[in-house]
Design a protein that fits this description.
331 residues; alpha/beta; Rossmann fold; Alpha-Beta Plaits; 3 domains; 6-stranded parallel β-sheet; 4-stranded antiparallel β-sheet; 15% strand
Length: 331
């Protein structure tokens, strides 16, 4: 009974553990045998085990050599049995390492960290986001969920890729969504706008269902689906089409021919930031706080108060202790 349990336990071990255990047992066995056969040349059990490992791995230092015919026969059996097993062990490790790297690139390996950011959908916007995080040396891990890509190069993007449908629970569990802090859900470019928004809403529902505390930033393309995305649980909605429409209008109808260049250069050279208000600024008006931030090369453009965002409020507006400042800052 005990022997059967030991055999079952052995065959339930991972292949790497089984191989290293087998190699160790064989080397211990041959080391013990050679110690018994030639105790004068192998005075201790460790000497015999050392010879077995050196001989079985075909290194052959020559510091311990069997002299008797029986000892040499044991050496032959060791080379045939142990040498082949060690070679197979090394080949298995190499093949397993290559397979693991391929599975990582193919998005088959579950993420094992926590406090990470999940990105749903790989496109130019999310690619630039990962590049910005890497360039600013932000150490927070990124887990990408995408069903259209077959693999991704980790040398180029430094993210953990999960291949699959972002509405499937098993895929979200692979991404450890319960331990994530934020999720960025982008519009799927392979769908039409209405279909892309419906898919985004399904992704929001799935993410919130697995982690109600998750902060979700979602991209919505049509106005009619914005409320539905908020009802689904999105904390912040980004309307990329609104910005592009405004930019097109400025390009065609604005009197200045350089309006588009001005907007584009502003976006390229500045980044949006938010920060809690300094205690000494509470009680002062918006204008006074804006002047103080300008001294630090920051352009104050608005505040967040509770759930309300105020862009370019009245200069006489008095700021409160719980306000968040919204400003532009050079990269």
């Amino acid at each position: 009974m005990i022997w059967n349990r030991c055999i079952q336990f052995y065959f339930h071990l991972p292949i790497f553990l089984r191989l290293i255990l087998s190699v160790t047992l064989i080397m211990l066995l041959f080391g013990f045998i050679i110690h018994l056969i030639e105790p004068s040349h192998f005075p201790t059990l460790f000497d015999g085990v050392w010879w077995a490992f050196v001989t079985g791995s075909t290194v052959g230092y020559g510091d311990y050599v069997p002299l008797s015919t029986l000892g040499k026969a044991v050496g032959i059996f060791l080379i045939l049995a142990g040498g082949g097993l060690v070679t197979f062990y090394m080949a298995t490790i190499s093949a397993g390492t290559i397979k693991h790297e391929k599975d990582l690139s193919d998005g088959k390996i579950a993420y094992r960290g926590k406090n990470h950011i999940i990105i749903v959908g790989w496109n130019e916007r999310t690619r630039q986001l990962t590049e910005m995080m890497r360039n600013r040396q932000i150490n927070q891990d990124i887990v990408l969920i995408d069903h259209t890509m077959r693999n991704i190069s980790y040398k180029d993007h430094h993210i953990h890729f999960i291949h699959g449908n972002p509405t499937a629970d098993d895929v979200l569990q692979k991404a450890k969504i319960k331990d994530a802090t934020h999720a960025i859900i982008t519009a799927d470019p392979s769908f039409k706008e209405n279909e892309a928004d419906r898919q985004t809403i399904l992704n929001i529902i799935s993410a919130k269902g697995n982690n109600p505390e998750l902060i979700i930033v979602a991209e919505i393309l049509t106005d009619i689906q914005q409320k539905n995305a908020e009802r689904a649980g999105a904390n912040l909605i980004i309307r990329s089409n609104d910005f592009m429409s405004s930019l097109f209008f400025q390009t065609i109808f604005q009197a200045s021919n350089h309006a588009t260049d001005i907007i584009a250069k502003t976006l390229e050279q500045q980044q949006f930031c938010t920060t809690p208000i300094d205690p000494d600024m509470a009680g002062q008006n918006f204008h006074a706080c804006a002047v103080k931030l300008l001294d630090n090369n920051k352009w104050l453009i608005g505040i967040m108060r509770a759930d309300e965002i105020m862009i370019h409020p009245d200069f006489k507006l008095i700021l409160e202790e719980k306000d968040m400042l919204i400003y532009l800052q050079p990269f």
